[in-house]
Each structure stands twice: as structure tokens, then as C-alpha cells.
Amino acid sequence: MAGGVSRRRLKLAASLLAGLAAAAIVFVLAVRPAIRRAERAAELDRAALAFLAGNGPDQDTNQAIQLFTAAAASGSADAATHLGWIYGNGDGVPTDPVAALKWLKQGAAGHNPDAEDGLGEIYQNGDGVPKNAALALTWFHRAARDGSLIALLHIGDIYDNGDADAGSPDYTLALRWYAQAAKRGIAAAQADIGTIYYDGDGVDPDDRQAMAWYRKAASQGNATAEDDIGDMYRDGEGVDQDRAEADTWYRKAAASGDEYAQDRLGDAYYTGQGVARDFAQAMDWYRMSADQGRAYAQDMVGDLYRFGAGTARDYVQAADWYRKAADQGEADAEESLGELYFGGTGVAQNGKLAMKWYRMAADQGSVAAELGVGVLYYDGLGTARDYGQARIWYGKAAEQGSASADDDIGDLYHAGLGVARDDAEALDWYRDAADQGELHAEDWLGSYYDDGQVVPKDHAQALYWYRKAAAQGNAHAETALGSFYSNGVGVTQDYAQAMEWLQQAARQDYATADTDIGILYLNGYGVARNDDEALKWFRKAAALGDRMAVGFVGIMYRDGDGVAKDYATALSWFHRAADHGDPTAQDLIGEAYFRGQGVTRDYSQAIGWFRKAADQGHAIAMIQIGDLYVAGKGVPRDLGQAQLWFARAGALGSPYAGRDLGNLSWNLILAGSFQQALDAADLAVRFTAPDQIWILSNRADALMMLGHTDEARAIYLKYAGQQDVGNGKIGWDAGVRSDFGALRKLGHATPLMGEIEAAFAKQSAAHIRDDNK
User: Fold this and answer.
1) Which among 588, 637, 580, 631 is positioned nearest to 609, based on CA atoms?
2) Helix (H, G, I), strand (E, B), or coil: what is residue 12?
3) What's the mean per-residue pLDDT of the chain?
4) DSSP letter assigned to residue 56
């Protein structure tokens, strides 16, 4: 059961309406015993009541008003009071607070307690006059003095709501006046005493006392009390928890038209709490409440239409119901209208209206609306794009614990939008979001630990976060897990597991997963090699926009895998990806021009395409450019430029850069560029594995030609007699002798050459003697 001030106000409003209805019935169906100033006034009063209470053609409000007016003119306080109620409630005539005030004052002048009570309500609520609690209390006291029982309740309400002079609730006085009304059988007062004991307002909380008073009120058919008893059985407060009994009481209250009980029954069927979940039943109960103007129920009806639960999905109806609720200030409905206008669902897309409704809901503290305002600023929809404002609104939502807002702030810091780029800060926000189960943030944490750029690379942590995101269906995380199992990163290599994860992502049409499945089939990893199946997956991924897949389709046409070899078709696929800036496709087009496959061989075109790819950091294209500079094809031969391109590729981790720099260093030695050769050899050593010893012979040659004899001698002798130098060809000694022979032919003989050759021969002879022994 709801508690607090808002709960009390809702109950008081319901009690007030019940009291008014009871008073109206008394006036309409019975003639109050009062002193008539004249027989004529009494006759007119009776005739007016007949017209007011009649059914069908016998009911005539205008005729009743004429007769009441005549009776009031003859001094009937009752008639004046009836006129006050008619104009105050708008019964058959437009509501007219001024006329209501006038006639009620006339009735009160005749000490009519209902008129006095009505004046108290007017001043309490500010109907056509400024609110005045003191004046309201004065009129309620007069009404109570003149016999109005409902006025006793209203005096209690004044003290309960804190509308008296002190400006704060006085529950002791409220309880005293409620008790007077309750003793005289006023059910609403009995219900209010129950609420005081339930909330512990001015008394110790006492659920059993609360239940006792609620039962007294309910025995008279008070719907609010029936509703409260239902709450107590639902929550097990003062009684054993019993959902079935709660449902029984809610139904009693709902049958009396109590919209709160109708809401609770709607909630029960909506959530399946205590009853079988039934959205159609939920819709029926919510509609009963909504048709009485209850904003919460109108919002829920909107939800049911929006999601097609218990009724056919109807976004237009959803928008209409949301608007009814939003016009009453229902924050959830305002936020939902913002969503509909943002997405153009059931209404024409309108960023300005989305912003309007989001802001209204956000001003009431709606977290989802604060997030929505941030998104509108981020996207520049309905307002100028402003990442700084997006950060502010995301921050508001994050302060209320929104994991999505934490995630969005992480995105801003990761991209440097509206804030200075700061991946460490982004990581903190992602972690906050991930700790609350936000799947996108979990995936980001997996990526950070996988990349090792912001935090140390940690495959175990990467796997942990990827698994959490994948468990919620995040396709990127599922694909990442497929890659881990496929490559045996952090786990035992398992192609079956890899395929399982990739298939899960592929079912969401995640293109990267489709491409990876194609690669497994193309290479026969964990499955029988199947070019047709590979091509099918590559085509699917390509249709979803994956540029790598587009390139693979082209490669299969180029190589004739699964299709007839067709260079022209291959080139068309390469261009599809290259036109979208894919560097691999640009490299492949360059290779097509280099080899003359599907086009006339053109080294200038080749290097142009290689440069496009290289400008995007494509290491293989850089190697290709370096090779063209070495060969002087498409560009003038320039070994210095070749060295620069090989070095760039090496810095990106290319496994070919060290080999090509090693070969380049030998070409530079032959060209007499000994210092440049030494530089190239040093770079080659840096970018190759330690077992590539053959490169060191080039380094020693360059040092020797530069006069660094001791350093060169140390290298030559260190590896003397070694057969495996990493080139798969000849051993160290034979390679060095070959180098010396080439240098002598070019006129670059040095004394160190003979010394080294003699040392090799001496060592070889020693080995022979040892073998003979």
C-alpha cells in the first residue's frame, strides 16, 4: 500500500467525492426537515426536486433551476443550497463558481449546514476564489455546529493535510475530528483513521488498528477502505499475506467504481502477481479506470496498445492514450510520447515535440526522459547538436543510477565528444554501467582488456566481460568469443565452440560473424572445407555491408574458389568495398593492376591504389609500395623511399618488413650506400625474429665497408660455422664468402675479408679433425 503525503491526498480526494455524493443523494431523494418561511417556497422546492431527480423526459434541470430560484427568492435556504451545488458541480449547466458561491452564501445565511460545508470546500480548494484555509475551517465549523456530519470529516482533513494556520499537519487534532465523524458512522472518516494508524502519523504505526478501522469503513461499502484492505492482504501487513483475499477486496472496491482498485487489478493481471498473467484482463481493468480519467491507467492503456499486449498493436491509439495521461502531468506518459515522436511511431517524427515531452517528464525527475533529452542533443534532433548538453543530461540520469546514461557518458569520453577524449575516464563510466549489467558497457570492457591500450592486456578479463555481454545477446561479444576460440586466445583452441558463438551472432545478422564463419569454411577450420558454404556466408555478410566479406567474395572469384575464376568480376567486388574506403580492397585492386589480372598491367595505377590503402595504415600495401620503389616500377627506383615504406610497415607489425629491409640493406651495399645499408640492416634486425641471423651478415658487411672493423669481425666470428641462419638456403660461412665475392667484383675488397675467410677455414679444418677422431 502506498504511503506518505501523496497517498493521503488521493484518499482524501476520494473521501471528499464520497461525501459529496452522499450529500447530493440526501438532497435529491429526501426533503430535509427544515423550517420553511412560506408554504409557497416548500411547494416550489418539492417541485424542483422532482424535476431534478426525474428520469428521461421527466428530468429537466432548467425547470428545476427556475423553481429553486423562485423558492430561494421566497427564503428557502435549501433551494439556494441546491442551486449552489448545481452551479458548482455543473449539473446540467456549465460550471459557474461565481454563481455557486453566491447561492451557497444565501443558503448559509439560512444556517443550511450543507451550504456552509460547501463554502468550506470552495475556500479549501480555491474554486473561483483564492484558497483560504482559515476561512474554510470557519465554514466547516459552522456546518458542524449546524449538524453536518461530513463537516467533521472535512475539519479532520484540514488538520491532516496541514492546511490550518500552522501550515503543517496536526495529526492529533485530525484524529480527534475524524473520531467524531467516525463515531457518527461516516465511513470515510473511519478509513482515514485507518490510514493514520497505517502510516503512523502522530501515533505509533499499528497495522492491526489500521485493519480494524478499514473493516469498519468497508462494512459500509467504502471503496477506499476496501482498496486498502486489499493492499494489506497483498503485502501481508497486519494479516497473513493472501493474494486471493487481496483480489477479492480489490474487486469489491472496483465494483464500486474505485479507480485505484481497478488499477491494482490491472497491475495484477499485467504482472501475473497472484493471478495468471492476462494482458486482455489487464486492459479491461485499466480501461475502467482510464475512462474515469485516471492518468496512471491511461498511461498503462497506452503501453498495452503500444506493445500489442492484450490487444492488437496500435501506435495511434497508444499515442492518444499517452496524450490523455500526459495532459494530466503523468511523467511516464510524457516520456512515452517523447519516444513516439523521437521514432515517428504512431505520430509523424518530430524532434521538437519529442524534446517538449521529454523535457516535461525530465522536469519531474524521469530518468528515461533525462536520457532522452541527452540523446536528442547528441543526435541534433529537434535542437542543434550539442554534445556538451548531452553530457549534462546524461549526467542527470546517471546521478539517478541509470546504467544506460553511464554507458553513454563512456561513449562521449571514448570519442572525445563534448569532453576531452579520455579513455581512462571512459573506462570508469563503462565499468559503472557494466556493474549494473549494461550489455554495451560489458562489451566495451571486454574490448579494452582485449586491446590492452588503456588497461594491460588481459585475456581472462576480456573473456569474463565478453561472456557477460554475450549472455545478454550482444552480437559483437558473441563474435569476439568466436574469435577467441578460433584462435585459441585465452582458451584452448576449439573451432566447434567458435562456430557456436559465431552462429549465435549470425542469427542476429551480425555481418562480422557471417564473415568469420565464411573464413572457417574457406580454410576448413573445425569443418570440412566448403567453398560453396564459404561463399554463401561471405555474400550474406557483404549484403549486410561488411567490407571484408566483399573483399573475400572478390578473392574467391580471383582464385576460382567455389566459382569459376573471373578476374573482372573479382575486380568489381574489390571496387565495391574500395568505394567505401576499405583499405584491403584498395590493396587488392593495386595488386590486380600490378599483376594485370582483369585489367591491363599498370604499375602507376597499382602504386596509386597501394597509396590509398597505405594512407589508412594498411601494412601490406606499404610493403608493395616499397617493392615497387626497389624495382623502379611505376616510380623511379629509389631505395631510400623503399626503406621508409618498409619501416612504416614494420612499425605496424608487418611480418614481411624485416625480410624486405634485410634484402634492401644488401642492395644498398651493392649500390655503395654503406651508411644507408647499415640503417636498413638495423631496422631489419628490429622488425624480425631473433632466428633471422642472415640479416646480421648484411649488417657486418656494412660495418666493414664503413671501417668499423672490430664490430664487423665480432659479428662474423660469432656465428661462424652456423648452418641454420633463417633463410632456408646456405649456412653462415657460405653466405659470408658469397657476400665477399660479390663485393670484390665491385672493387670493395678489404683485408678483413681474407682474415675472416682464413678463420672460417681454420675452424672448418678443426671440425674435420674432430670428426675424424
Assistant:
1) 588
2) helix
3) 90
4) G
